[in-house]
């Protein structure tokens, strides 16, 4: 059994028109929600063994704030592959980087994350910013993480509902 934690980046700012979408930072609300989600992970004994984040500013900052507050002590794996990634991009990077880890978290963007959750669980979940989903997967190795794997939706946490 493997556990995949799926986290959408926290609320980001459109305030500076000179920044590209890729460079957008978190808002003050985003900077509050990301640590909250990290603490939620810690309190629920869900600290990831590995965090894989999109390299976009808002996603990476979210991953860093979650890591600091969840007890995560490893390096964050950063990849541009998850920026505008579709479900297959997420599956591929987890297969490639998951290694021996039992609990992997991906930090990325919609619509790819909502599509990934639906593909894995056959359940559509609305994922606002900083939403977190836990999916348990009936696999022994991340190498077996393919689009025909059906997982169990264990939990969904949205900051506004906490």
Explain what this protein looks like in three dimensions.
The protein is of the alpha/beta class and about 160 residues long. It has helices at about 30-45, 55-70, 85-95, 110-120, and strands at about 1-10, 50-55, 75-80, 105-110, 130-135, 150-155. Strands 3-2-4-1-5-6 form a 6-stranded mixed β-sheet, with helices on both faces. Strand 2, helix 2 and strand 3 form a beta-alpha-beta unit. The longest helix is centred in the first third of the chain and has 16 residues, at about 30-45. It is globular, with a radius of gyration of 14 Å.
Detail the topology: elements first, then pairings.
Blueprint: E1 2-8, H1 28-43, E2 50-54, H2 57-70, E3 77-79, H3 87-97, E4 103-108, H4 112-121, E5 132-137, E6 152-157
Parallel strand pairs: 1-4, 2-3, 2-4
Antiparallel strand pairs: 1-5, 5-6
Strand line-up in the sheet with most strands: 3-2-4-1-5-6
Report the CATH C-level class: Alpha Beta
Specify the number of helices.
Answer: 4
Quaternary structure classification = single chain
Main β sheet profile: 6 strands, mixed
Helix content: 25-40%
SSE succession = EHEHEHEHEE
Strand content: 15-25%
* pLDDT averaged residue by residue: 97
Give the C-alpha Rg.
14 Å
CATH superfamily: Phosphoglycerate mutase-like
Number of domains: 1
Structural class, from helix and strand content?
A: alpha/beta
In CATH, the architecture is 3-Layer(aba) Sandwich
């Amino acid at each position: 059994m493997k556990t995949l934690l799926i986290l959408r980046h926290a609320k980001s700012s459109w305030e500076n028109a000179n920044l590209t979408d890729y460079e957008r930072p978190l808002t003050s609300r985003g900077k509050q929600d990301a640590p909250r989600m990290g603490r939620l992970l810690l309190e629920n004994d869900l600290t990831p063994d590995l965090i894989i984040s999109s390299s976009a500013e808002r996603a990476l900052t979210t991953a860093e704030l979650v890591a600091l507050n969840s007890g995560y002590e490893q390096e964050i794996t950063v990849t541009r592959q998850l920026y505008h990634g579709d479900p297959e991009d997420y599956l591929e990077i987890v297969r490639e980087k998951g290694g021996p880890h039992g609990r992997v978290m991906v930090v990325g963007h919609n619509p790819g994350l909502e599509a990934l959750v639906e593909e894995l669980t056959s359940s559509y979940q609305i994922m606002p910013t900083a939403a977190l989903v836990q999916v348990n997967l009936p696999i022994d190795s991340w190498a077996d993480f393919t689009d025909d794997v059906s997982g169990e939706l264990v939990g969904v946490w949205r900051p506004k509902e906490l």
